[in-house]
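Customer escalation, tier 2.

The customer says the design service returned an amino acid string that "doesn't look like it belongs to this structure." They asked us to rerun it and document both sides in this ticket. The original structure tokens are below, unchanged.
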């Protein structure tokens, strides 16, 4: 049987220790080779904890660039290798030569100054400022309110900003923090980290320190408050923190993916506190805003690299007309298009752009193993439970193997993860299935046709 290098590589990826080489491989796939080789290739893994990793980058510029553009997606990719990771930190390693190999073993000395202390949770991103925030119809009110807050502290308390993902909530509340950080004691934290600190403090018997720490802020910014839904203990603590801050007239700023009254499984008294100040929403960007953002991105690019990406008005117009994009996705598309134009070294046509967008859409689509199993069993008109069962008859075993093969091909799940989703089979069974189907689809045109059809059903909605 022929050897597939892809499979060999995956065999070495252990469940709980990141295999940095295969992480790098998936960066390359996810970001494309252009972005990968310009920005991500030299990232090293400095230290790995259960829930987060510390990554080494060469310079401050690299750190800022990577954090502002790729951090979310990097985190996303890392989670595909290790689900428990929910945070990344970057550490500047100083200029290092390209020849240095990526070290699997963390260099403890280099990161001794990173303590998992409370202060570490109080980071503002210098790039997410008011100056870099582009205003349009969908975010104008939120923007004005955020600005207003900075000039009239505690007049509107709390400021509650809500809206869907990728629309600029974190950017805006971060901007408030940046603006005020020199004149006030600004505390900026996500609700999730707030919980992490809270639990840690309980365990270490340090609740007094916890309370003091958060309550001495005079500007308290908390991101993604929807995270407290259903978490009673956390809500209790948040309520008290909120009250003591409010009582001493500290400005409180909150972001959420939904308005206060729609925060189900949150205590009523908290909801009423949250809606007691100024509540504003950020909406989906319209054509004008998308166009403005694209133009700003081009200028930014030009300033950083002294080269003008080959994007004409027609292309900008074409991208800006794309419906239902949030701003994060819009910027993602921009990066892809720029990378493509750099690579092809020619002005892009609208047709090139169409192809890139289609690709982006396919890549953005998260395909689940459940979906693959459903579509495959439907396709062969067999019962899903039977397909997953231990029975070995060919009418069940082949579709099962096809589904495993597609799970490997269309998702980034590891072999053990795929095995688990197939009634707890071993990863070697998955490898066998992948090899079998790969071979069959080379030799057998019906097999190939079936696989193509199943794939297109999976990708089509
Ligand atoms: P949210 O917190 O609502 O999910 P973010 O604040 O993280 O969204 O925004 C997603 C990305 O889009 C960030 O890179 C952010 O800088 C960018 N962004 C969002 N809104 C704007 C805007 N109005 N102008 C410029 N960049 C924006
Ligand atoms: Mg956010």
């Amino acid at each position: 049987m022929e050897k597939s290098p892809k499979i060999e590589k995956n065999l070495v990826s252990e469940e709980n220790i990141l295999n940095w080489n295969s992480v790098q491989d998936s960066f390359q796939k996810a970001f494309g080779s252009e972005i990968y080789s310009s920005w991500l290739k030299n990232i090293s893994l400095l230290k790995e904890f259960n829930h987060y990793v510390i990554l080494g980058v060469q310079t401050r510029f690299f750190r800022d660039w990577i954090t502002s553009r790729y951090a979310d997606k990097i985190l996303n990719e890392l989670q595909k290798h290790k689900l428990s990771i929910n945070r990344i930190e970057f550490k500047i390693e100083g200029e290092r030569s390209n020849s240095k190999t990526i070290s699997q073993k963390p260099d403890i000395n280099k990161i001794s100054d990173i303590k998992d202390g409370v202060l570490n949770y109080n980071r503002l991103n210098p790039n997410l400022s008011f100056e870099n925030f582009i205003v349009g119809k969908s975010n104008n009110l939120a923007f004005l309110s955020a600005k207003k807050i900075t000039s009239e502290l505690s007049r509107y308390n709390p400021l509650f900003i809500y809206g869907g993902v990728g629309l600029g909530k974190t950017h805006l509340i971060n901007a408030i923090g940046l603006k005020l950080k020199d004149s006030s004691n600004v505390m900026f934290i996500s609700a999730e980290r707030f919980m992490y600190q809270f639990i840690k403090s309980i365990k270490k018997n340090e609740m007094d320190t916890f309370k003091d720490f958060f309550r001495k802020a005079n500007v308290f910014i908390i991101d993604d408050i929807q995270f407290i839904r259903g978490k009673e203990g956390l809500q209790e603590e948040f309520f008290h923190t909120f009250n003591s801050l409010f009582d001493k007239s500290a400005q409180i700023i909150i972001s959420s993916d939904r308005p206060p009254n729609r925060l189900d499984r949150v205590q009523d008294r908290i909801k009423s506190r949250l809606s007691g100040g100024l509540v504003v929403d950020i909406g989906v960007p319209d054509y004008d805003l998308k166009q403005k953002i694209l133009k700003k991105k081009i200028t930014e690019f030009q300033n950083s690299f002294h080269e003008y990406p080959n994007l004409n008005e027609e292309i900008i117009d074409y991208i800006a007309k794309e419906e239902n994009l949030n701003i994060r996705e819009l910027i993602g598309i921009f990066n892809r298009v720029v990378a493509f134009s750099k690579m092809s070294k020619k002005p892009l046509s609208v047709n090139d752009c169409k192809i890139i967008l289609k690709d982006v859409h396919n890549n953005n689509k998260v395909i689940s193993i459940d979906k693959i199993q459903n579509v495959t069993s439907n396709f062969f008109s067999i019962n899903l439970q039977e397909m997953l069962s231990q029975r070995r008859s060919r009418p069940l075993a082949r579709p099962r193997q096809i589904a495993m093969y597609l799970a490997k091909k269309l998702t980034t799940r590891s072999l053990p993860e795929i095995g688990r989703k197939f009634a707890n089979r071993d990863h070697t069974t998955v490898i066998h299935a992948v090899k079998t189907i790969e071979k069959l689809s080379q030799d057998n045109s019906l097999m190939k046709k079936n696989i193509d059809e199943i794939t297109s059903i999976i990708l089509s909605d």
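Tier 2 assessment: The sequence is consistent with the input. Residues 1-15, 95-120 have pLDDT under 50 and may be disordered. The radius of gyration is 25 Å. Sent an explanation to the customer and offered a walkthrough call.
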